[in-house]
Amino acid sequence: MAAITMKNIVKRYGDGFPAVNEVSLDVRDGEFMILVGPSGCGKSTLLRMIVGLEDITSGEMLIGGKVVNKIAPRQRNLSMVFQNYALYPHLTVFENIAFPLRLAKLPNEEVKRRVTETAELLELTDHLERKPANLSGGQRQRVAMGRAIVRQADAFLFDEPLSNLDAKLRGQMRTEISRLQRRLGVTTVYVTHDQTEAMTLGDRVAVLRKGLLQQVGSPRELYEEPVNLFVAGFIGSPSMNFLPASVDGAFLETPLGRFELRDERKAAAVGARDIVLVGIRPEHFEDASLVGEEKKARGSVVRTRVDVTEWLGNEQYAYVPYEAPADVAAQLRELSRELDSDQLRTQAVVALDAGSLITPGLEAELWIDTSRIHIFDPATGDNLTRDEDRVAQLGRVAEQSRDAQRRAQRDPADDPADGAAEDTG
Ligand SMILES: Nc1ncnc2c1ncn2[C@@H]1O[C@H](COP(=O)(O)OP(=O)(O)OP(=O)(O)O)[C@@H](O)[C@H]1O
Ligand SMILES: [Mg+2]
Hints:
By secondary structure, the protein is of the alpha+beta class.
């Protein structure tokens, strides 16, 4: 096992295009790190530089404290699973898993022991004598995984390993990978552009945009305290709503209505700006008629017209179109394009209680939890209201829950809740 340290890593391809630009990232020993970002942002390139399949233009790559820039892939002792993993069709599952051990010319006894162990871990014991063609997609995926982990590498690198599977299998494999990683405790870097994988698998998530690292943090930190518009819009589904707002003292005038900024810290962050972008997650709206008086007082109520509602049984989405000044609308469209989101940016998506009877086409009162809003500088995209105390607190919580999960995986007798529940206030 080993930590992976990247220092100012740059990758320029032949045409001079920086696919990865000055990325510095510390993956701790035993940590599960997710790399996420839109297509073409440099995720695979970065992963391939870690393994050694791609030269590093400048910067330093360290594995277990040793600079590996000039070290051949074989000597790095890392294991990689690609998106398009290939199994050998003429070999049994046993031999597919055993392949890297055969290459390393390990004695038969040792091969047998390790393959049996790995197969048990991946619940493939009953399939060891079968050929890949006779397996289900999920089983094949597990064989590919088995081939990677049988080697006892210093780190595992995964490049969208689940993207070929259907939704249900992805869900199952996700849980298995998570359990496996915690059990083996091997440093892992996992590339995905799947929201759910990014949020559920990793200890920390690194968000890339056009080769530049935007933010690294626990999933919860990225969700609650994003550093900028890009991360705020990328993490979370449906995405955060961004409303242009003109500042009028302690009030924000938005296309959905005017509301008061009660939080002094946030008001101070706005400073002397006239125009800001207000970020509100869909779940921080509610049908005002369903909100109790006490809670109502914590936020603001706006009157608006709902265009479409989608009732899903356990929850309900409503779409609220609004007018935005042309330049802001253009900026939001651009952001939306970059985020690969098909969502029209001049409509707000709000999540309502499934019991809400708000009707499309009619005026409705929506309550906004203004204590949860973010305010962004429209020029730079910076989050002006990021709460550093909250960030530190979330960091501690993430650390504790990680330790507890690891302990529970290694020693199932341990109570997983032990020590994880503190400091969540
Ligand atoms: N061999 C290459 N030669 C030139 N440019 C390349 C090469 N490989 C990748 N690129 C460019 O580098 C950038 C990053 O590519 P990369 O494959 O790392 O993206 P990615 O984040 O993995 O995207 P995806 O989610 O689509 O897999 C892209 O703009 C791509 O066009
Ligand atoms: Mg890729």
